[in-house]
Amino acid sequence: KDERLIDVGAGIGRLAIPLSKYDKVTAIDINKALIDKIKNPNIEVINSRIEDYFPKYKLDYALVVWPSALNYAEIFEHIKKNILKEDGKLLVIKSLEHDLKKITKKIFPEIFRKSDGFLEVLSNFFTIEKEKIIETEWIYPNSDEALRLILFELSAFYNKKVTDEQIEIIKEFIREQEKSGKVYMNAKLKVLLCRRFYIK
Fold it and tell me: Cα–Cα distance between 175 and 170 in angstroms, integer?
């Protein structure tokens, strides 16, 4: 209960909200449309780049989920020097397979940046202590809600207008994921627990 965690690129708080039951959580995201969705008195919400944030007290954990930035070195260096305590830990969750990514790649192929070299950059600042593969599933209650939320996420995450033709592609994708009226999405994730890397 006395530990402090920062969720970097927290979005709408999918992880920040449940984590706030266990730790003191700061949610930070550059996207105001997403971060403003978090309405939880137990979470400190900050609309900013992580590189521009300097906490009053250094933190126990930093969480980086689905990293897609190009300036990895700047981000990891800032987290190591200015965000985490000496014994603080970095948690990285990286998508290996993701149903929602399939449809995003199909309608917006131009937005996907290569994350080649991500682990190499990480290893300049942190040492991986543990890693684990997790398979997870989430469920939309019906196809209309799935379409509404997917359109919101595409707009908020990627700042892209979806055409009528693309909406039809999304609807077809939703139908493929639908079982007994509910829409099921799956993801396979790699979770890395890292400590600071020191040059001896």
Answer: 9
Asked if residue 104 has pLDDT above 80, the reply is yes
Angle, vertex CA 17, rays to CA 13 and CA 19, nearest 5: 120
**Placement of tokens 């992880």 in the chain:** 15
Q: What is the pLDDT of residue 1?
A: 66
Do the Cβ atoms of 27 and 44 come closer than 8 Å? yes
CA distance 94 to 192: 8
CA distance 130 to 117: 19
The whole-angstrom separation of Cα 83 and Cα 8 is 11
What is the overall mean pLDDT for the chain? 89
Mean pLDDT value of segment 152-178: 88
Rounded Cα distance, 61 and 25, in Å: 9
Give SS3 for 133. Answer: strand
List alpha helices for 1-138, DSSP H.
16-19, 32-35, 72-78, 99-107, 118-122
- The enclosing H or E element of 157 equals helix 143-158
Q: What is residue 192's DSSP assignment?
A: E
Per DSSP, the residues of 49-66 read -GGG---SS-EEEEEEES
Contact yes or no for 61/31 (Cβ under 8 A)? no
CA proximity to 175, closest of 144, 135, 136: 144
* Strand (E) or helix (H) holding 95: strand 84-98
Residue 152's H or E segment, with its range, is helix 143-158
